[in-house]
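hiii, so i know i said id send this last week but things got crazy w the move. better late than never?? heres the sequnce for the chain we talked about at the cafe, plus the structure i predicted for it. fair warning i was half asleep when i ran it
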Amino acid sequence: MAKKQQDNRRELAEILYMQGYAQREIARMVEASEVSVSRWAKDGEWDTIRQHTLNTKNQRLSELYAELAEFNKMIKERDGYKIANSKEADVRRKLIRDISDLEQKYNIAQTTTIARDFVTFIRKDNADLAQEILHLFDDFIDNLVKRAKWQDQ
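okay and structure toks below
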């Protein structure tokens, strides 16, 4: 049972790390030592994964925008009827939905990063207030994630 609990804490720590939390905050949140979190991050190559994830999202978003622009250009440059037919309109709708979904997920990550930076800024002057704000931001981020999941259904 202890091994499973350790694995669950490590998995949660990785999720928090990918969201941009500092190792010290993660250690507190998952009730592990900073040394353990640091070791988990190193063993799991979390820095590489986090960077790859961010690059992949940005690259994919750029590709989707380019695809949508090319698709619209194709429709406008053709001879005759320059309005999308039903199949083309469906493809365009799907591209726009994919862009929106990816931007929503990216915005959650950005919000998390801003929240972390703000809490770090406040912590310098008032650790208790920073802790309270951190809990509020956690609730806010959870709400964003739940709303995004609900919209996916």
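btw The chain has a mean pLDDT of 81. thought thatd interest u
miss u guys!!
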